[in-house]
Amino acid sequence: MTESPTCPLCGAAHCSHYHRDQRRDYLQCPRCALIFVPPAYHLAPAEERAVYDQHQNSPDDAGYRRFLSRLFTPLAAELAPGARGLDFGSGPGPTLSVMFEEAGHPMRIYDPYYAPDSAVLAGEYDFITATEVVEHLAAPGRELERLVALLRPAGWLGLMTKRPRDRAAFASWHYILDPTHVCFYSEATFEWLAEHLGMQVVFPAADVVMMRRDPKRYRRMT
């Protein structure tokens, strides 16, 4: 029997079977509760890019702005005037960064396909956002730790991603049909992550999580 891969978030071994459909397997971590797709089922970069190229997001789309406001509104309420931010995984039509700039917050953007300026990942930020991004990450532990390290003391990390409820709902969940979605985070997963990094965590909406770096408790995962 082939040994199961380790958890891509916390590195735990002995991850167990969670679900299988016609396309791929899903495992669950016994430590952080992350549900993830083994690397053998991940798309190649060119295939992944082709899926993202189909997205039609734009700051001119009022509906998309309403969707993003589920994170924008609670996060903006926590920010000091002029707080500097980074939108990570901004996609082909950056919009959340525009919303924060309109609110007086200088923004940088990064996306490995559409805005691959790695220099922005050497900066320091008061807040970082990643909307509909973390479910795509093949190595979420490494990437999230890198982002948190860019935050100033008491800085915020704001994420949007849909959260699984239970095994029965997972089997018919539309979110797993996207072949670029490879990681699924429950509240328990984010609570584990916040505790492990020494951060505070709140859940303003069903698909929103905000974590605040605590300068007295923050520590690296590795």
UniProtKB/TrEMBL annotation:
Q: Which GO terms describe its biological process?
A: methylation
Pfam families per UniProt:
Methyltransf_23
Q: Which UniProt keywords apply?
A: Methyltransferase, Transferase
Q: Which domain of life is it from?
A: Bacteria
Q: Which residues form a coiled coil?
A: none
Q: What are its E.C. numbers?
A: 2.1.1.-
SUPFAM superfamilies membership: S-adenosyl-L-methionine-dependent methyltransferases (SSF53335)
* Any one GO MF annotation of this record: methyltransferase activity
Q: What is the protein name for this chain?
A: Class I SAM-dependent methyltransferase
